[in-house]
Amino acid sequence: MNEFIQLYGESTKTALGFFWKSGWAFVLGYFVSGMIQAFVPKGKLTKYMGGGDFKSISLSAFFGAASSSCSFAALAAARALIKKGAHFIAGVAFMFASTNLVIELGILILIFLGWQYLAAEIIGGLILIAISTVLIKLTYPEKWMEAARKKVEDEGEEIEEEFDWKKRIKSKEGWQLVGHKFVNDWKMAWEDILIGFTIAGFVAVLVPESFWSSLFLVDATGIPEWVVTVENALIAPFVAASTFIGSMGNIPLATVLSENGVLFAGIMGFIYSDLMVPPLVHINAKYYGWRVALYIAGIMFFSIVLTALILNGLFSYLSIIPESQRVVSEITQFKIDYTFWMNLVFVWIAGWLVYQNKAYLKDHSMKMMKMEGGGKIKSFMVGLFILINLIGLTAFIFNSLI
Q1: What would the pLDDT profile of 255-268 be if each residue is shown by its tens digit?
Q2: What average pLDDT does this structure show over 306-310?
Q3: Residue 31, burial from CB neighbour count under 10 angstroms (0-12, 13-18, 19+)
Q4: pTM
Q5: Which burial class, exposed, middle or buried, applies to 6 when counting CB atoms under 10 A from its CB (0-12, 13-18, 19+)?
Q6: What would you measure as the largest C-alpha separation in the chain, in angstroms?
Q7: 360, 345, 363, 354: which is closest to 183 by C-alpha?
Q8: Which of 106, 97, 89, 50 lies closest to 73, judged by CA?
Q9: Segment (H or E) for 158
Q10: Of 122, 143, 174, 257, which sits most exposed with the smallest number of CB within 10 A?
Q11: Do residues 261 and 325 touch, judged by C-beta distance below 8 A?
C-alpha cells in the first residue's frame, strides 16, 4: 500500500512538474498567438484560397500558423474557410499548420525535446503540407468533396473582416482584444493540456521501459535498423490516437517516449498525429460525413509516416539526429532556476491579459467561433483527471511527511 501511495504521488508530482516547466511558455505562446490573431488581417486571404495551387496552400499555411494551436479550433476554422470558398486542399493545409507551426508548440518542443526536434517540427510541418497536397491531388474524390461542401454551406462562422492593423495596435481596444484572444485560446486548450500532462506524468512513472521497448522494437536484435525506423513511424500515429490527447498535451508524452529509446522517426510521427485522435475524426465526420472524415484521416496517416521517414533520412544525413535522451525526472524538477523566474514574470503578464479580456467583454458581446468540443465523455474525463491530480497531490504530501 505504501508503495502504491508513493508511486501515485510521484506520478502526480511528475505531471505537475511538466506544467511547471512549461507554464511560462504557454503564456508567452498564447500571448504571441493573441497578438497575431488580433493584429494580422485575415479577411482578404480567403479570396485567394479557392484553388489548390501554391498561393492558396501558402496562404492557408500562413493563416494556420497565425491561429490557435487548439486541435478543436483548427477543425472549426478549417470548416469556416471551406464554407467561405477555400479549396479542400487549403483546408487540410490550414489544419496541419495551425497545429504544427504555431509558436507555443515550438517553445514547448524546445523546452522538452531540444532544438533538433524544434527544427524538425518546422521543416517537417512544411513537408507534411506538401505531401498531403500531392496525395490529395492524386486521389481527390470530387463527388465526395462536393457533397461535403454542400453539407457545410449553412454552417461555420464568418471570417473576421479587414481592419487597419496600424490603428488597432496603437489602440486600447486592440490590446483588450489580445487579452480576449488569449483567454479564449486557454479556454479551448486547457482540457487537452490537463489530460495530456496528467497521462504523461503517470505513464512516465508507472509504465515500464520494457513496454515501450517491445512496442517500438527498441532492443530488437537481428532486425535491420531501417525496418525498426519504418515500424516506429508506422506505429506512432496509432499510439498518439490511443491517448486521445491534442496537440499541446502530447509533447510531455513524446518526452517520455524519447527517454525510453523510441527513435526520432517515431517521436516525430507521434507529435504530428494530434489530428488523428478519435474525437477529432468524429468531429470531421459531423462536418463532412464519415467518408470524407476517414479520407482525411487516411491522407494524414500516410503524410505523417512519409514526413517522419523523410525527416529521419535528412537529419541522419546531416548528423543531427538527437542521440541523448531527455530525462523526465530532470525536466520536472521544482527548483529556483530560470523556470521559476520566468513563471513569476509571466504570471503577472497572464493576469494583465485576463484584465484586458474583462475590459473587452464590458463593451462587446462574446463572439467566439462555434467549435465542437469533446462532448460529455471529455467533460467527464476532465473532472476525473482533476480528481486524480488532487488525490495524487495529497498522496505526495502525505508520503513526504511520513
Answers
A1: 888 888 889 999 99
A2: 96
A3: buried
A4: 0.77
A5: middle
A6: 68
A7: 354
A8: 97
A9: none
A10: 143
A11: yes
